[in-house]
Amino acid sequence: MKLLMALMLLLPGTAFAASAGTPLDLTNSAVGYIALVIFVGAYALVMMEEQIHLRKSKPVLLAAGLIWLLLGFVYSNAGKIEIAQTAIEHNLLEYAELMLFLLVAMTYISAMEERRLFDGLKAWIVGKGYDLRQLFWITGWLSFFISPIADNLTTALLMCTVVMKIGGNNPRFINIACVNIVVAANAGGAFSPFGDITTLMVWQAGIVEFTQFGALFVPSVVNYILPAFIMSLFVPKEQPDVVQEFVELKRGARRIVVLFLFTIVTAVGFHGLVHFPPVIGMMMGLAYLQFFGFYLRKTLPNSLARKRALAQAKNDEAALRRLGSVIPFDVFRRVSHAEWDTLLFFYGVVMCVGGLSLIGYLSSVSNVMYLQWDPIWANTLVGILSALVDNIPVMFAVLTMQPEMSLGNWLLVTLTAGVGGSLLSLGSAAGVALMGQARGMYTFFGHLKWAPVIFIGYVASILCHLWLNSGAF
Questions:
Q1: Is residue 361 a contact partner of residue 77, using CB atoms and an 8 Å limit?
Q2: Distance of CA 120 to the CA centre of its chain
């Protein structure tokens, strides 16, 4: 406590001379510097997650608490605690909307996984007998088109499982295929509000309408197809040895996909028709899944009885064993399987960036990037920063700055923040997850050697957007 009071005495006198309704300028104060050091230190631990095995949510949660504790003492001492309270409540509301939206989406994805929908897709791909180059393109395009709905992280993990199952004894192929999947999943997520957290944030903020994201489709295709074509030249047309596998989808698997699509329509409807936050529609969509789960549980005994009679008639022992291990569908168990580390990490990032914004650092950065520079160059740099740091805090910082930009520039920063993370394996959640799943075969340096090729796609996608959507600038 004494240390905090001493630090407050080091604040410049001009900070306390501000008017009652004006936030304090703490950018050149000891508290501001300490907050910056806390955030940088926390993010250094986040970037070393794979090496030290410390979940990324822990350091940012601690950093968020420390930064706002410092701000609370400073603003209380200055008699301006209402300003800090308003700021923290605003950031909490921002987080709550995004967290509940993501929670519903994650619950649906978990439900599809539990109903073995992804296992069925994986078995179908493996059983087709494609050679390695065909598999390279198939997993890439599937990653590109699934990620706009199922998010880039889930899509990348699914396709990586396919690649490892087929090319398990070929680490060179697994590395290049994983690079391809990361690039495809990030590119596919850039033209859909559901494809990445950054696009979701832009949509939730009301800056870009749902249908306007479609303008990024062709630039996203360019971002993926150019590096994929070059990398495919280094993939042999070998025929891998695979084992055929039959996967029986659990009851209701396809209907859950339909409910998820209907949930997306509901969220878009709430936003477009009555101008409510999309999260209201997503929470309503969770009710669809809950009612369907209730139906599955109530009708389970009759369904099992029919299947058991059919299996006994066919003398199918394997089917009888499967029926004996059936677990009733439980929506709340699916909720518990959501990626809570990601959700809590997101909370820490939102609160840390919100604290740095109240200090005044984001205004300073915004004045340099968006007033002194051309916004096109600033937004191009945002994509490169997202490869070094992470696109979530970078995009949230841009949204917090709220620079005056045209629709074309907001679409540009959405594109660059989404696909810029593909430049490095640590630049996106998909890359980090695949390094863990394909440990030793897909590595940081294995991805890095393809960075120049990926950068060609990055630049080409920006030029494509500037050309195709020139009327939006």
A1: no
A2: 24
